[in-house]
Write a structure and sequence with these properties.
Layout (H helix, E strand, L loop, with lengths): L2 E6 L4 E8 L4 E8 L11 H23 L6 E9 L3 H18 L3 E5 H6 L17 E6 L4 E8 L2 E7 L5 H11 L7 H8 L21 H17 L3 H4 L1 H27 L3 E5 L6 H13 L3 E3 L10 H13 L14
Amino acid sequence: MFYILAIESSCDDTSCAVIDSNFCVLSNVIASQQVHKEYGGVVPELASRAHQQNIIPVVDKALKDAKITKEQLSAVAFTRGPGLMGSLLVGVSFAKSFARALDIPMIDVNHLEAHVLAHFIKDTPEQKVPEFPFLCLLVSGGNTQIVLVESARKMQIIGQTIDDAAGETIDKAAKILSLPYPGGPHIDRLAQEGKPVLIFSQSNIKNYDYSFSGLKTSILYTLRDKLKENPKYMEENLADIAASVQKAVVDSLLNKFEKAIKDTKIKTIAVAGGVSANSELRRRLQELGAKHKCEVFIPKFSYTTDNAAMVAVVGLFKYLEKDFAHLGLTAYAR
């Protein structure tokens, strides 16, 4: 049995996890930053400062929760990118120092690959994981992609947004509605109380690619016109607006994903990323799987947002192939 410690610091959550050689997560500690709420979004400088304050206590707690000492670690994995450069540098610098002090290898991890492979996180050794190949719909605040996952080390992006991301569209709508940051959970909660009565125009581009800029503009103009007719329209119809936004985003996501399922004929599908916590997306993905007789994998809510457990999984796959990083590497934002 061996253990890998992983660090995630790509945005505003400082996280550390410990995984064993059976892919079982022994600890997954996350320190969230509340300071950004009053600004309605993540402030990079404040995020990097908070990471500096949080990283040592988070690593210490992860080791204690896993009931191991740092001397028992075989490697240190860390998110190298993409993400906020200042935040990434805190995690990368700590990982380098920690690995060097313990004289163990370090492993750099791509943040988006970690989201995709979050489905291999095990709470018990018997837990079922996807079989390769599978199709993964990766949806977050900054990314929207359809990924053909041929193996843990071989992934192909067959579709992606050409402009804005799905999560960004939901957050923009939440901001228009004056909902607190982050807006996704509030849109989801309100949508369950309303009906999708508004129809928004959507882009229709070729292949499996997405475009959400048109939808964002349509939401803005539609609500502007409604407010001209009734200045209290938004406050009187908040739930219906949220339901309409949510349906438009999910429709757009799954129309292209269904096309990919039909064309590739792959029978294992998955969803990942922060937006995969959305209840409507999870429900309709299950329906889509049943329609096409696909096995569906949906992550636990705790593994949808940024977390170090998913970084640890990629780290373990790379450790088994002895794919280690060198001290001279740097973080990358994109």
